[in-house]
């Protein structure tokens, strides 16, 4: 018996025989979807006297909110830091391919690049909803160039910059436009960073600390001015020291303003961080952990040489280094691999692992009222997974956009 | 009356569920000819609802042509509050079965005019052709629905203030905070339930034993409103051994046959 159409004519789909992630637990409940959003079936029953038009048996799958990747530099041969003629089709390709990894929203990330690259590339990135064409774009993540020389990692030294002359104006001139920028990673020890952080925060841009030699006080000051994220914790920052924990100390700092939470990205590909370090971070501040892939162009391709902005990187298995060195440069892990590895390494619950890739990034970006959960009225971006957390199907706005086919491809 | 005594809560729940199931199936409900069921809330019927859901999921029982009328609902509690009877019915029963939402009737404790709401409810029952089987429970103070001690035995659906006993008993569902417990409710009357063609009262647990004794071994009395059913032509009391603890051995032996 379909709804009485008093509120909407749109068909109502009821996903049955599943376990859904809601209120931090896997619950044996059905998932109801209408017009691209999660529907409250009790309200439907009592207010509209409605019921489902279609019932789909999910064969006991886990249904979780779609993954959100806030740090991804490219993949499948596409490099977001390269201003190519077919940049747009490159971003489209990646957004389509990552659906099979369970990613339903992402922030295309640009590593340190010359201003000309930002000026050419950023206007070609637009915030847009996902769908069958691919995962949704939440905005760009600009990692650099306002970072520390000592912790540049794989970023090209000749492109590093400072904003000590003109502060925010320097930053704006470098990037050209901040219209579709969602996250900026910078090193807070740089002179005038507080002004810049404050200005970016006021514009609704998430400021992340990374590629930095900041000590804990500098990091705390940055947080007080608005910074809310740490880019790939442990990597490209001073190591934890018991008398100056550095940026890592933010996880347990008592100087975080009330009501705010500091989030931290972790690349749990098994290479960037030793599992013991991953566990220390997770146990110290479980609610702040955000899984990111930091994937590069070579992700999804065969081992060999690929680009990462102005650099050449070499891929061997899951290891990616600046060609000829032992400097790590991004990863080729996929988001679902990171979720599985995180769960294994920490022994955490399935719910915790899934939330680290969905709820937490949504909270970081302040969009948890519509993404990152299966709460009523949220966008119906979700995944069907088996018990081992392998993605079986991906849905965006209630529509199936990817399904594992029988051959397991 | 019939007094059916089962060994424990689970068996009593199953017996009651099977009875309801068989009644519906024997009636052969169809388009335009609905089986009307009166339904209770609370702890006691939970096992019975679970069994009915099981029969439905096994394909043995459909609620497609069943109309339901719940006994009561709190006044002033938001409909989606976890302790409202709407929430109870949705979570424990309606969401698991195939009932048409248009056929599931529960009093609206937030209606703008509560008496109009009650009168309309009586009318809906009448329009549905009356209730075929009204399933109810009993409070420790012998009340049926929210017909507290002192309620008229000919009462109809109306607004009632809850007795202190009831509020105390309900406090556990509201974090033990008495100030959070609703003090008023809309309820079918004793007379409303008496109009049903058949009545089944579920009573389980030692804490209900005294009320059962008062209801069936003493006289008809408005202080123990369930006693009114001594005068109903077709009533079954379904209970477990513990609920019989205050009855005379003679009564129990008679009904155990």
Automatic annotation (TrEMBL), chain A:
Residues 62-401 form the Amidohydrolase-related domain. It catalyses: N-acetyl-D-glucosamine 6-phosphate + H2O = D-glucosamine 6-phosphate + acetate. Substrate binds at residues 154, 235-236, 243, 272, 328-330. Pathway: Amino-sugar metabolism; N-acetylneuraminate degradation. Its cofactor is a divalent metal cation. Pfam families: Amidohydro_1 (PF01979). Its EC number is 3.5.1.25. Keywords: Carbohydrate metabolism, Hydrolase, Metal-binding. One of its GO terms (molecular function) is metal ion binding. Binds 1 divalent metal cation per subunit. SUPFAM superfamilies: Composite domain of metallo-dependent hydrolases, Metallo-dependent hydrolases. The active site is at 294 (proton donor/acceptor). GO terms for biological process: N-acetylglucosamine catabolic process; N-acetylneuraminate catabolic process; negative regulation of UDP-N-acetylglucosamine biosynthetic process. Belongs to the metallo-dependent hydrolases superfamily. NagA family. This is N-acetylglucosamine-6-phosphate deacetylase. It comes from Climacteris rufus (rufous treecreeper).
TrEMBL record, chain B:
Residues 8-232 form the Glucosamine/galactosamine-6-phosphate isomerase domain. This is Glucosamine-6-phosphate isomerase. GO terms for cellular component: cytoplasm. Belongs to the glucosamine/galactosamine-6-phosphate isomerase family. One of its GO terms (molecular function) is glucosamine-6-phosphate deaminase activity. The gene is Gnpda2. Its EC number is 3.5.99.6. GO terms for biological process: carbohydrate metabolic process; glucosamine catabolic process; N-acetylglucosamine catabolic process; N-acetylneuraminate catabolic process. PROSITE patterns: GLC_GALNAC_ISOMERASE. It catalyses: alpha-D-glucosamine 6-phosphate + H2O = beta-D-fructose 6-phosphate + NH4(+). It comes from the Eukaryota. Keywords: Carbohydrate metabolism, Coiled coil, Cytoplasm, Hydrolase, Isomerase. HAMAP family: GlcN6P_deamin. Its main location: cytoplasm. It comes from Climacteris rufus. Homohexamer. It is found in: Cytoplasm.
């Amino acid at each position: 018996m379909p709804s009485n159409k008093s509120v909407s004519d749109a068909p109502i789909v009821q996903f049955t025989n599943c376990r859904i992630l809601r209120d931090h637990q896997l619950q044996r409940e059905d998932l109801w979807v209408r017009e691209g959003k999660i529907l409250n079936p009790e309200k439907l029953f009592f207010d509209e006297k409605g019921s489902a038009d279609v019932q789909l048996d999910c064969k006991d799958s886990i249904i979780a909110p779609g993954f959100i990747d806030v740090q991804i530099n490219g993949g499948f041969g596409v490099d977001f830091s390269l201003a190519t003629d077919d940049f747009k089709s490159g971003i489209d390709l990646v957004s389509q391919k990552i659906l099979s990894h369970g990613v339903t929203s992402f922030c295309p990330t640009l590593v340190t690049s010359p201003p000309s690259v930002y000026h050419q590339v950023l206007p070609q990135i637009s915030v847009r909803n996902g769908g069958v064409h691919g995962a949704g774009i939440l905005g760009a993540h600009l990692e650099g160039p306002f970072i520390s020389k000592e912790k540049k990692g794989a970023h090209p030294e000749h492109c590093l910059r400072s904003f000590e002359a003109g502060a925010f104006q320097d930053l704006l001139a470098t990037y050209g436009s901040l219209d579709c920028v969602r996250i900026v990673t910078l090193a807070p020890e740089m002179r005038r960073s507080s002004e810049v952080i404050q200005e970016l925060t006021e514009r609704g841009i998430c400021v992340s600390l990374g590629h930095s030699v900041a000590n804990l006080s500098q990091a705390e000051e940055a947080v007080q001015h608005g910074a809310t994220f740490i880019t790939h914790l442990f990597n490209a920052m001073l190591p934890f020291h018991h008398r100056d924990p550095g940026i890592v100390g933010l996880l347990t700092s008592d100087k975080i303003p009330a009501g705010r939470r500091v989030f931290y990205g972790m690349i749990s590909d098994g290479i960037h961080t030793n599992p013991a370090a991953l566990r220390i971070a997770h146990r110290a501040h479980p609610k702040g952990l955000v899984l990111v892939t930091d994937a590069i162009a070579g992700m999804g391709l065969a081992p060999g040489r690929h680009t990462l902005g102005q650099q050449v990187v070499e891929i061997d298995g899951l290891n990616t280094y600046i060609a000829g060195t032992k400097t790590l440069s991004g990863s080729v892990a996929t988001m679902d691999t990171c979720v599985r590895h995180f769960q294994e390494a920490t022994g955490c619950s399935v719910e915790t692992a899934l939330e680290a890739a969905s709820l937490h990034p949504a909270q970081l970006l302040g969009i948890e009222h519509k993404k990152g959960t299966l709460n009523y009225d949220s966008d119906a971006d979700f995944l069907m997974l088996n018990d081992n957390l392998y993605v079986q199907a991906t849905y965006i706005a209630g529509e199936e956009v990817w399904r594992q086919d029988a051959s397991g491809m | 009356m019939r007094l059916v005594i089962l060994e424990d809560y689970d068996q009593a729940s199953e017996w009651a569920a099977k009875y309801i199931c068989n009644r519906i199936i024997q009636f052969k409900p169809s388009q335009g000819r609905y089986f009307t069921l009166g339904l209770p809330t609370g702890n006691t019927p939970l096992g019975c609802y679970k069994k009915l859901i099981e029969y439905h999921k096994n394909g043995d029982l459909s609620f497609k042509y069943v109309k339901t009328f719940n006994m009561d609902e709190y006044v002033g509690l938001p409909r989606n509050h976890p302790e409202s009877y709407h929430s109870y019915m949705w979570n424990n029963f309606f969401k698991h079965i195939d009932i048409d939402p248009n056929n599931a009737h529960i009093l609206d404790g937030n209606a703008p005019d509560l008496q109009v709401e009650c009168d309309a409810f009586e009318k809906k029952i009448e329009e549905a052709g009356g209730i075929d089987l009204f399933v109810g429970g009993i409070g420790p103070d012998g009340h049926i629905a929210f017909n507290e001690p002192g309620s008229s035995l000919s009462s109809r659906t109306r607004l009632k203030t809850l007795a202190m006993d009831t509020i105390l008993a309900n406090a556990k569902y509201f974090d033990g905070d008495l100030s959070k417990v609703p003090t008023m409710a809309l309820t079918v009357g004793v007379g409303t339930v008496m109009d049903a063609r058949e009545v089944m009262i579920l009573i389980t647990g030692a804490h209900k034993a005294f009320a059962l004794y008062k209801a069936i071994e003493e006289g008809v009395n408005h202080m123990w409103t369930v006693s009114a059913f001594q005068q109903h032509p077709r009533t079954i009391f379904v209970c477990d051994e513990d609920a019989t603890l205050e009855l005379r051995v003679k009564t129990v032996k008679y009904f155990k046959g």
